[in-house]
Amino acid sequence: MIHARCEQCAEPTAAYDAIRYGSMETGHRLLCTQCFNAEVARRYGTTDLENVRPDPIDMVDSAGDSHRFHFQMRLLGPTMIVLDAFEVREDVRCGYEFRIMGEPDDDVLTLLGRLVEKMRRALSVRFLCAENHRLRISDQTVQGRISSDMAGFENMPVVVVDGKEIMWDDFGRMLMAFEGWQFRLDIADPADEL
Fold first, then answer.
1. Sheet containing 164-167, strands listed edge to edge, beginning at the edge strand earlier in sequence
2. What confidence tens digit (pLDDT) does each residue in 26-65 have?
3. Same domain, 76 and 147
4. Model's pTM, two decimal places?
């Protein structure tokens, strides 16, 4: 696992738990999530934040595959916190990602419970299936997340469906099964319910 050191507490910090914080005028520092939240709380005078780090959990999807989710709670100002759940592979966030938003004085266990319920609903549905060793869209609906190909030379999107990263060209080939049909593309904030 690749680690950096938090510039505030000097603790080793996984890449997925590190946040660059600052401004062009003052410069940026690499902070762990805990120190980031403490810094933002100090800046905005927020005293209600329960700065916790939930332990990772394992959940099983509808195909019986297990997924380990890590959590990150971030204070984004005086009135908003974000709680993310995400998979990690080779120290990088990838696969399924979920988000819920709340307020600094919200009960963290209640937010966590709402997030886990959102995760269960999403993991209970499959949008892809395998046919002749190739993935295809199972029905007429597909839902996922837009990401990017960090290893590629071109700035091409990658879609994450059923926790699987699918290159843009491969996704285009899946859509060709519906050539001549209509479609609607709705883009939503990660915290919204679809």
1. 145-148, 157-161, 164-167
2. 899 999 999 999 999 999 887 767 788 899 999 999 999 9
3. no
4. 0.88
